Amino acid sequence: MAGGAFAMGIFDKKPDKSYPFTLTDAEWKARLTPEQYRVLRGHGTERAGSSPLDHEKRPGIFHCAGCDHPVYDMAHKFDSGTGWPSFWQPLSDTAIGTSTDNKLLYTRTEVHCANCGGHLGHVFNDGPPPTGLRYCMNGVAMVFKPAL
User: What is the pTM of this model?
Assistant: First the structure.
């Protein structure tokens, strides 16, 4: 299935310690709100149901709040009922990267911006067709830009 092949390419990516867009820690703190910094740079998770982006329905593109890199298309968004914006695939196979997250008692796949390395959320294998994936994103880590 094409969606599955697309998604597997993303899972194969190894985290890269250098990204095209980089700032010092002081520059990140000046650029981001405290909550954006906690999530994007500190790998935090926003409280479920706290993001207005979970209810966003207009056509448009979601960008990384750290560097403005386009990461998700509204056409791939679905209501997962989790309280976080969820997508069944990223905007492209180069929009995001993934890495293994062992911070909890079980292993998760972390999703980060391919341009700045900012933590966006996690991907799970309980999503809808055609990929069967649920990219569960922190709304505070993204900015929505409506289509013109």
Answer: 0.86
